[in-house]
Hints:
Strand order of the largest sheet: 5-4-6-7
Radius of gyration: 19 Å
Number of helices: 7
Distance between the termini: 23 Å
Number of strands: 7
Strand content: 15-25%
Structural class: alpha/beta
Largest sheet: 4 strands, parallel
Oligomer: single chain
Amino acid sequence: ISNIKEWLEAEKIDMIIALGRQGATAARQIQGKWPIVIGALPFVPDGFSGISLSPDPGILFQHLKELAPRVTTIHVVYTNGNAWLMPFAEQAARSRGLTLLSYPVKDLRETVHEYRNLLQNLSGASQAIWLPLDNVTADDEVVLPLVLQGSLERGLVVFSSKPSHVQRGVLFSLFPDHFAMGQGLA
C-alpha cells in the first residue's frame, strides 16, 4: 500500500476510481487524501460512493411488467449485503403498481428455508420471485434449482439480477452496460 501511495503522489493523481473487491480493499487502506469512487461490485461499500453492479430495481420491474403483465407481487429473499437495495426496490415497485415483499436471511440454510416456505404458499402468474445479485440468496447450486423447480410446479414467474441465470431458465435478467458504468464513475 505504501508503494501505491507513493505512486499516486508522484503521478499527482487527484481522484481514484477503484474497481472490484481488491480495489475496494485498497481504497479503504489509502482513503483520506484522495476522493475515491468504487465500482464493479455487487454492493455499495460503506463510506464510499460509487456504482454497484446490481441492476436498478426500477428497470428490472419495468421489464417484468412488459414481459409478465399479470404479476402484481414480487418476492425477494436477501442478505445484509443487499439490504441497501431494498428501499429503492420498494419505491420502484410501488411506483409501478407492484407489491414487493422482502424476506431478510442470514445464510444459505435460512435462504433455503425461506424459499421452501414461499414455494409452498405461492401459486399463479400474479406472483414473481426476484433473485438478487447475491451469492447466498441466488446460489447457483442449491437455490436456483430449488426455485426453478418450485416455480414450474406452482406457475410462478422468476427473474434474476444474474445474467447467467437466463441460460438456466429464469424469465429474464439485465446485463450491465459497462461502458455507461465507466462513464458514470468518471
